[in-house]
Predict the structure.
Amino acid sequence: MRPIEGLTVLVDLDTKKIVQIVDKGKNIPIPNAANTDYRFSAQNSYQRLVNPISIEQPKGPSFTVEDDHLVKWANWEFHLKPDPRAGVIVSRAMVLDPTTGVIRQVMYKGFTSELFVPYMDPTDAWYFKTYMDAGEYGFGLQAMPLDPLNDCPRNAYYMDGVFAAADGTPYIRSNMVCVFESYAGEIGWRHSESPITGMEIREVRPKVTLVVRMAAS
């Protein structure tokens, strides 16, 4: 990507005429084109591929998906759906309290735009920018289909996005979201804060987390 910083054009979409051209980036250099392509196919200096890694679940995943959107995992359950604007929406998240046996409501609705950190730049080229540089266009509309066994491991559950085009025609964005279990890499189960040496640790458990993934352009 080679952005031309500081150059903005105001266009009247009714008359299809340019109303104003503002160039405040004359002293800002344009990035070079040579040797800046990040795609793997263009990286001639690194040709060695790593071997694939497989996480096996002989009994299948521990989570279930009911009615295409209700995810149940361990003592958690939540509603999951793709959204053209926010990308992925997690709603009605609840957890079963092990001490009281009561289901607690944790979150009514949460989505990616809640992570929005404003640029706080009032210039014409930046004031409208939202989260991950995608919100102004629609995070879900920019999503790409996930590649099985590449973006998501075996036993992943895939969810399509059903959206409406500008003229109202429905269309499907396939494999937009995947849900899977993954090792969190946490080894704290084997350690103790007790200063007494030689204490036997009987409980050794791998920490597993539930992952919701979406690939955006």
